[in-house]
Design a protein that fits this description.
CATH architecture of the largest domain: Ribbon
Mean pLDDT: 92
Strand order of the largest sheet: 1-2-17-5-6-15-16
Structural class: alpha+beta
Radius of gyration: 24 Å
Order of helices and strands: HHHHEEEEEEEEEEEEEEEHEE
Low-confidence stretches: 4-12
Strand content: 25-35%
Number of helices: 5
CATH class of the largest domain: Mainly Beta
Amino acid sequence: MKSLLKFLSEDIGWQRLAIVAVLLGVFLIWYGRRKAKEPVYDTDQLSETAMWGYFLVLIGGWGVLMSYANPSDLFFVVMMVPALLALLAKARGYKSKGNTRPLPDWAAFGFSNALILALIGFGKTFVVEPMQIPSSSMRPGLIVGDFILISKFSYGVRLPFLGETIVPLGKPQRGDVVVFRFPLDTKLNYIKRLVGVPGDTVEYRNKQLTVNGQVVPTAPVGDYMYTDPPRDEIKAVRMKEEMGGVKYETLNVPQLPTLIPMQIQQFPQRDACQYDETGFVCKVPAGHYMMLGDNRDNSNDGRYWGFVPDQLLVGKAFLIWMNLGEFSRIGNRIE
């Protein structure tokens, strides 16, 4: 399964697959119309060929547009398309059943799928969203191949694309594992641990985290080995850490530095941070958060690209629901 996913995503490319899906969908819609022997008057008379064609166009269109906007927001829009088609059909005098004139196949598709796809779209956008862990930056708690669930309402109900809170339900807390849109490219979703809320002074020097002058308790609990291609096997030390009442583990690779100065980028409110060869200290601005990866020496995080604005928050990660390589991880809560 992993080899198939790698072949599809890297060797062929998701973008090309999406284009192929759109083209194949258009062909199936055309073919479904051509082979239809009688006009369609009810939604249940729509041919399966045309139905699958419309589904492929939706999925492929989502894939193509992911190059231009965040996939999570686009998913909501795509899932609303059948509802829009149904509304357009109603405006033109069509019904799901009992039409006295032929029902266009796009209208039949809209009527038959509007409710279920709208519910899926609302659920994924405002309730729970799945995500696959793409890197080792959150080891040891999360590893490559973990499929996780994100609570989309933990930090309030938010408008797609804008990220503005319309129903406040909760606020991010130190120690949360947070999914957010990457500030330097909002088409990408990142996952890190929140270590600083607005107004906090976050310091990380010589691999010791300090928040508002208080040292975050940490202690070694054992060795940890992992392979992160194309690198060789990496030997690290598991560190038990506690923040905001949350206990979790981080990784420390003794031979690696706390900070790689050449990777520090220019970012908004850069003057709120000070760097030297031992680490950094940052004052978190209002309306922003500071994020670090649990794999502290192998993480592209806030120490390099700055702060995460509140409107870029996606949700709180809470559960591993699948890992095709390690079934024993299924059901683990994310701390």
